[in-house]
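Course assignment 3, question 2. Fill in each field.
Student: A.L.
Task: Predict the tertiary structure for the chain below.
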Amino acid sequence: MFAGCVGRDFVRPAPDSLRLGQTTWPQVEQRYGKPFKQSVYTIDGMDIVTQIYAYGSLSARGHRAKIGSDGAARKLEFKFHNNILVGYVYSSSWAEDHTDFDETKSAEIIRGVSTKTDVMRLLGKAGGHYIYPMIASTRGEADVYYYTETRAGVAKQAQTLSKLLVVTFEKNGVVSDVNLKMSLK
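Answer field:
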């Protein structure tokens, strides 16, 4: 058996280090290096390029290796439209900087009433932020809470729990939309 790490380690971006609608792909690449993975998809006819950075523990027995088999991994996704940053999400299952959140508290967020301060009080600091076209509102912005964890499953089949909460705010800081997605695969 051997153990080690996969990917290059990185830290959660400081909130003021990335400017949505202004930061460019070359600026991100200069800071973080080449991504682990890239994908392209379309939202309302607009191409969104996702650059993914990942870091996790590696353990193996024989030829079988799992990234994050102990549940510990970091992931940082940057979303670009026309080479301009329109979103980013940081996720970690490491104890020292985990991004886990209580998804049941999303039911307490009330559209048209709750504020950005209310959401932060309920859920803590967001791991990411989106602007249009990552959200429907062309004038608002969203706080993004994301957590993913790989767990040992039945008969050693790994299962991955993913939670994604996107809370959209209008310019006045009042919640206009709440979208929670969860999966266990």
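Instructor remarks: Residues 25-32 form the longest helix (8 residues). Residues 1-6, 58-69 have pLDDT under 50 and may be disordered.
Grade: pending
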